[in-house]
Amino acid sequence: MFSFFRKKSSSATTPFSLDFMESDWHCHVLPGIDDGAPDENVTLAMLQEYVQLGIKKIVATPHVRADYFKNTIETIQAAAAKTNALIETHSLPLVLEASAEYYADENFVQLIQENQLLPIEGQYILFEFSMQAPSLWGHKLIEKIQQKGYTPLLAHPERYRYWHGKPREWQSLKNRGVSFQLNLLSLVGQYGSAERKAAEQLMEKGYYEAFGSDAHGLHHLQKLKDLGRNPHFDTLQQLPLLNRLG
What we know:
Belongs to the metallo-dependent hydrolases superfamily. CpsB/CapC family. One of its GO terms (molecular function) is protein tyrosine phosphatase activity. The protein has 246 residues and is α/β, with parallel strands linked by helices. The chain has eight helices and nine strands. Helix content is 33%, strand content 15%. The longest helix has 17 residues, at 73-89.
């Protein structure tokens, strides 16, 4: 169990950085393909902010869902090519990996069956559930991901309010081999106090394996600087993470 009340006296004078994390495993930086960066100008501004934050690698995870964002491997890779061109043109010290945030629906089941997935680091499939109600596809999706040899990585479990106050639901997912990804914005109150509390509880249990910004624009990346004043920031830097580059 981790303690969340350690503070370093130098934290007030040390410039804020996320260099301990090394890579961002959840963001919407690719231009014009979901509700993230609408164009290459915003993408470039986000890339430049990543450099300032000390991030070395970005895993772009645009939404993939049947109703709103009908992205495919082809649309994602095309947008990633544009982003890589920006990185090269502006000589930014960043590496970009193209992946996706898959929505738990029937379309996702089909993509798994047809091997139409973009895993993170060749191993992790980032997916999200509905914010309104538990998914009817949950257990089936987890099994199908694992049958393909991948590890299911659940995006922002702290944001599913129907699981708040129900630790057995989280434990059940962990028992099934699901890895958890924390939205750092949850810890600065971006989604509300309930989400912040849930994130702290999951951290205390040591349930998170990966971090992500879930940034949809420059304002989200700038908001992350508030983490430097958070009493949990020192603990964040000590957690074992998949994000770190080998």
